[in-house]
Amino acid sequence: MIYEIFHILVLAGLVISASLTFWFRDLLAAVLAAGFFSFLISLEFYILQAPDVAISQAAIGAGLSTAIFIIAIRATGRYEGGAP
Amino acid sequence: MSKLVRFAADILYPVVLIFGLYIVAHGHITPGGGFQGGAVIATGVALVIVAYGYREVTQWIGKGGLMAREVVGLLGFIGTALVAFIFGMPFFYNYLAGQGGLFGVPVTYGPNPGELNTGGTVPLMNFAVGIEVWGGLALVILYLLSGLVPHDDHEKEGS
Predict the structure, then answer these.
(1) What was the ipTM of the complex prediction?
(2) I need a labelling partner for A31 at 20 to 30 A (CA). Which of A24, A38, B81, B152 fits?
(3) pTM for this prediction
(4) Chain B stretch 126-145, residues whose beta carbon is closer than 8 A to a beta carbon of chain A
């Protein structure tokens, strides 16, 4: 029972964090939401019994790609479509 | 970055390094392997690079060192596979498995806790891939950040 509740919470968090990534106009917040999405999807991979993929996803998705996006934001602008 | 971020990066970097090397070393027993462990270590390097900035980091971690890791990893991988020709075996033949010595303990049948000293050439190739991914992914971050430095200088001159 607690397993199903946890699984549904993770799936709901996936949908919410993906929507937040789309809706944020502050790109730094959007990148952090995308990193949280990567963390949740690595949890989902672990629940679906693919720990190998979960480790890669946590390292590449939540760690390296977030750092790359933050570097790209520092090189360009922080807000989508100019300053708010 | 601030002093707090640098302090956290100082503490976290050895832990991340040990965890990544653990994943690489146990690649043939537990989930994970060369790529996953190397990616974990590269994440730790990226943490240090982001915390300290390009100027300070390049004094400790040169591009040459990371490129050397890449070259050593690739040459180690292909060299381990090519050594099989010396024994008259086909390419990628596992000539160390079951021979005793380094990674040569025969695998016991049935459920067992897992012996680290098994697998033959598989752990050696895991180490090679881990070192290669460590160098490659850290080099990607370093080169991305090197494109940012003239931008920073321009901002400082303008302000």
Answers:
(1) 0.80
(2) B152
(3) 0.83
(4) 137, 140-141, 144-145
Q: Concatenate the DSSP letters of all residues of B20-83 into one string.
A: HHHHHHTTTTSS--HHHHHHHHHHHHHHHHHHH-HHHHHHHS-HHHHHHHHHHHHHHHHHHHHG
- A61, A41 Cβ separation under 8 angstroms: yes
B33 token code pair: 């392997």
pLDDT mean for each 10 residues of chain B (159 residues) = 87 93 90 90 88 83 88 93 89 83 82 83 91 92 79 48
Q: Is the distance from CB of B19 to CB of B44 less than 8 angstroms?
A: no
Q: Does B35 touch chain A (CB under 8 A)?
A: yes
Task: Give the mutation candidate from B12, B40, B133 for the A interface (greatest A CB count, under 10 A).
Answer: B40
